[in-house]
Amino acid sequence: MTGSATRSLLPLIAALFALYFIWGSTYFVIRVGVESWPPLMMAGLRFFLAGCILFSFLLLRGHKVPALKQWMAAGAVGVLLLSVGNGLVTVAEHMQVPSGIAAVMVATVPLFTLCFSRLWGMPNSRLEWTGVAIGLFGIVLLNTGSNLVGNPWGAALILLASLSWAFGSVWSSRLPLPKGLMAGAAEMIIAGVVLLVASRFSGEHLTAVPGMSGFLALGYLVVFGSMIAISAYMFLLKTVRPAVATSYAYVNPIVAVLLGIGFGGESLSPVEWVALGVILCAVLLVTLGKFVFGRRKTEIKEVKV
């Protein structure tokens, strides 16, 4: 491998690492944070602070302030992905949905992404629709487990969050977003403002000053979960296939479940473990199936010839 090829590959590897492991850990960190912070307030502070810091850094590096049209596009994506997508997950974890279960539910994003891609005329194969059907069965199975059966509102919030994130991800590639990292900065600033306004109108307020764990959780979410991971996701959406950009969906749940069990005292019932396996198989089928099975068909044709 040449030096130039290595240099072009390193950002891709770093971005995938950020999505796979850092983003996977944020579910557990959110659970720690909402023990000290109101959910919408914490999510709003997370994105507003991260966006402002990243925006200031980029301005100092000579980046241009986005045009009005770019701010509007960034606002639309920021609201869908961060305000609704991440905000509702934070609220659900505040409602005692375990962090590992939340991550398993969010793993359905690639399935919904496939469905929304039809709005822009993207063809889908029978194999992909089969993956969607299997994934929906996994969601139903997961909701029969002990962690969600008594918390239907929490499950509904995460499902709505996944739908919003999937739609925003598909739509983002067709919007005039700011270039580079400025897109993530603008999206986080607007999403943070929307979440803080929602926090205000919903009557959230601090009953006590958050402890050290609360501030550490917020700091981790600002720096690692937002500035680094979300910038990495925006980078991947613009540089690789959607299948690669959304491949975090079958790694995050494993990371989140292990952290929740190891450090948070969470547990999954046998039915929920089966549901996790079903959903991950569905996501793998949708994102990688056409490449694996397509390659096999090509090889068979070549052998026959």
From TrEMBL:
UniProt family annotation: Belongs to the EamA transporter family.
Protein name per the record: Drug/metabolite exporter YedA
Species lineage: Bacteria, Pseudomonadati, Pseudomonadota, Gammaproteobacteria, Enterobacterales
Highest taxon in the source lineage: Bacteria
Positions of the EamA domain: 14-143, 153-287
Lipid bilayer topology: Multi-pass membrane protein
UniProt keyword list: Cell membrane, Membrane, Transmembrane, Transmembrane helix
Location(s) in or outside the cell: Cell membrane
Main location: membrane
InterPro entries linked to this entry: AA-Vitamin_Transporters (IPR050638), EamA_dom (IPR000620), EmrE-like (IPR037185)
Transmembrane annotation, as ranges: 12-34, 40-59, 71-89, 101-120, 127-146, 152-171, 183-203, 215-236, 248-265, 271-293
